[in-house]
Write a structure and sequence with these properties.
Elements (H helix, E strand, L loop, with lengths): L1 E6 L4 E7 L2 E8 L2 H8 L6 E6 L4 H7 L7 E2 L9 E2 L9 H13 L5 E6 L2 E8 L2 E9 L1 H10 L20 H25 L6 E5 L3 H5 L7 E2 L3 H14 L1
Parallel strand pairs: 1-4, 4-5, 6-9, 7-10, 10-11
Antiparallel strand pairs: 1-2, 2-3, 7-8, 8-9
């Protein structure tokens, strides 16, 4: 069994794999709870990726991860990285791209991760080509509240109308319908040169936008974990 761990901005996701099959997955908001789960069993291999914590910080909290494989731009993987600043590339983005390539290796791929930020990553012929980053739902609401005097701080995930009949409705439409339009636009632009593009959506907001997107998309909420497990298997091979 392999254990893979994704340290995100707000949660810690753990996945247990038997070969290439995800057999157990849990999400924790508290590092001590995650440590209890991580140390409960003995695993053949452990893989880790982190958005904002260093290896030293994570091992300081969970010493049992001292010998884990921490994903970095230098980690051997099935994907070649064609990115000008690989040291600034989020490892969750790389893991998701590897996971998408694991599932759909024969097509050009766009991986959309709807989280704190919305990231769009492009993979073609085994090469990670880069992508796009824009603010997520909460950041858009927060920026309107932070940088204006009278706009309230909202958190709605559903827009009941395109044309708002109140300030709050107008803000919700701007955020939710704006993101839908952004996603559709990026998909259309990518497809201009990649007619057989496969679009994979993941992240905490994927379920919110899945039904709103007219383009054909494949939702894979555990794509980061799949990518981490593939890296572990690749390094054994």
């Amino acid at each position: 069994m392999n254990l893979v761990i994704d340290f995100g901005n707000t949660n810690i996701k753990c996945g247990v794999f038997d070969a290439d099959q995800l057999v157990n997955q849990l999400t924790f908001s508290d590092v001590s709870e995650a440590r209890t789960f991580i140390t409960r069993d003995i695993y053949f291999q452990i893989g880790v990726c982190s958005v904002n914590q260093s290896r030293e910080e994570i091992v300081g909290d969970i010493p049992e991860l001292e010998n884990a494989l921490f994903l970095s731009p230098d980690t051997p993987s099935p994907l070649e990285i064609d990115y000008d600043t690989p040291l600034t590339l989020g490892m969750d983005r790389l893991a998701a791209a590897i996971g998408a390539f694991t599932l759909f290796s024969e097509q050009p791929l766009m991986v959309i991760d709807v989280g704190t930020c919305i990231t769009y990553d492009f993979v073609n012929k085994g090469v990670y080509k880069g992508g796009i980053i824009s603010p997520g739902v909460e950041l858009r609401y927060k920026s309107m509240n932070d940088y204006t005097k009278n706009l309230p701080l909202l958190n709605q995930r559903e827009a009941s109308t395109l044309i708002g009949k109140s300030t709050e409705q107008s803000m919700v439409s701007g955020v939710i319908n704006g993101i839908v339009g952004e996603i559709e636009s990026h998909i259309s632009q990518f497809m201009l040169n990649n007619a057989d593009l496969k679009v994979i959506m993941t992240g905490g907001g994927a379920k919110i936008f899945e039904s709103k997107i007219k383009s054909d998309i494949f939702v894979a909420l555990e794509i980061v974990l799949v990518g981490l497990n593939r890296v572990l298997e690749y390094n054994v091979e």
